Amino acid sequence: MRPLTEGVHKYGAKIVTQLTAGTGRQNPAWLADGSDPIASSDGLPNVWNPSVKHRALTAEEIRTYYIEGFRKGAIVAKEAGFDGIEIHAVHEGYLLDQFATKTMNTRTDEYGGDVEGRLRFCKEIIDAIHETCGDDYPVLMRYSVRSKMKNWNDGALPGEDYVEFGRDYEESIEIAQYLEKIGYVALDVDNGTYDSWFWPHPPVYMPEYLNLEDAAFIKKYVNIPVFCAGKMVDPGICDKAIADGKIDGVGMARNLLADPQWPNKAEAGRKEDIKPCIGCHIGCLGRLFQGKRMGCAVNPECCAEIDYKYKPVKTPKKIIIAGGGIAGMEAAIDLRKKGHIVDIYEASNELGGAFIAASSMSFKVEDKKLISWFVKECEKSGVTFHMNTPVTPQLLEKLEFDEIIVATGATPRTLKGIPGIENVEIINAVDALRGYKEVGKKVAVIGGGLTGIEMTYDMVLAGKKVEVLEMKDSILGMDVVCAANGMMLKQILKYYQIPVHLSASIERFEKGKVIYSVNGEEKSVECDTIIASVGYISNTALYDEIKEIYGEKVHLIGDSKQVANLLNATWSAAELAMKL
């Protein structure tokens, strides 16, 4: 790691590394490889499969493996040039958090009982580090003020009235003060556990600055710096929180994946140029859980900076892009970095494509900002827009170009062949989200994928009564939706008591009703509006029409190539731009 630390020091910055005791009851590996499931106490349920119960680490194991491991790790970290260590963590329900929190620590030995017993593990860690690295070698603690738990695997939503099952304010004050007493020099603060995973990894549905007030609360009770993480979005608001004495600093991660120049743009007063993180977790946390390299849905270059070298070309090409959605604009920006001449032809009077509908929900503040960012970045880079101008073979005959990129997106799937369908109006998700069709007060949403559930939540917030019908036995398509996002949506469905009918086969439509069956039993949903959210089909009409004419000059990206998500749109565009 020395090249990393030397590179950071070259710019006058400091760098601290995290050392961890691991996950305990939060580790999914126990389920896959038959390992010995350990935790702070006997009987703690595994987060991913509560039927698996963990055993308590022995005192000998703690000292022999963990404390000695931290001692050796600290030596390596200091030799590598790190300016300090942050212990991961008395936060997010990790192993050290399981020891620190009364609910999760029922031990009767020296590692249980009062706060000194529950924090003995943390004290022995910092003592070992100071013994090997010196008392002046700083050790920070990643810390959650509250657990935000109603029970095991049951997280509390923002604003929900609940009784804290995990660490509450009273216990948090005691723990924070003891951590300061035993030598930890700062608290790097957020909230939550894996049982309430949407707090430490806040999705789009969580409010901005969600942990700020709790960070400000705990700062009142300690004399060491307190940093706050969790959707710290606007540099001005972050600066004010520090200036007002609420916190001493800001922690961020995903912001820097989306835009590594965030701090420089903030310092220069250019916050409007910051590319926003939209809290989708598709490229970062989601990919890590799929065993893939980390990345970012809005920034294809993230963790692949060496691969994406947009060197200016000797002979610029004239490139036409059909479609001004996210994929089209990403391609245009990247192509301009190489010096190509780029014209975007957009059939409508708006830029953003399908993402306009996707960003229309009330809680998708950053999504709306992202569209604006792409438009402004295209304008700054010299992309020429042709609005209300669909690309046709006839138009192409009049234009000069070297390459044409088709980014015409996808069209909503429609329901067909269901008895009674001719007697009802079925609105597709895009028309409903854009307000093209009026949506009544009692709504049946057919399709429990991500779009269907998100729009259901937004309609419920607007005071509508909504029921969801899903033909599969589960919702959201969890293979592509990050667990933090999915967990929060499921908590939302439970909190608002939104009916979701699984394994529902649509039998027929009647006036004011959707008739469906589950395992042969016929049921019905009364409604005044039916919305179909049953996926999309790639729009390849233009591509198919011009491919035979222009051959290798024609390229396909985004949803028009493969219906997927925002990551597919930006990554496919960036990959093509690298080749042209």
Largest sheet, spatial ordering of strands? 1-4-5-8-9-10
Q: Strand share of the residues?
A: 15-25%
- Gap between N and C termini: 35 Å
Radius of gyration, whole Å: 27 Å
Q: What's the story with the biggest beta sheet?
A: 6 strands, parallel
Ranges where pLDDT stays below 50 over 5 or more residues in a row are none
- Number of separate strands: 25
- SS-based class: alpha/beta
Q: Percent helix among the residues?
A: 25-40%
**What's the average pLDDT?**
96
Number of helices: 21
Overall 3D shape: globular
Structure description:
This protein is of the alpha/beta class and about 575 residues long. The protein contains 21 helices and 25 strands. The strands form 7 sheets. The protein has a 6-stranded parallel beta sheet with strand order 1-4-5-8-9-10. It has a 5-stranded parallel beta sheet with strand order 13-12-11-14-25, with helices on both faces. Helix 3 (about 60-80) runs parallel beside helix 6 (about 120-135) and helix 13 (about 325-335) packs parallel to helix 21. The chain starts with a helix and ends with a helix.
Compose a concise summary of this entry:
By secondary structure, the protein is α/β, with parallel strands linked by helices. 34% of the residues lie in helices and 17% in strands.
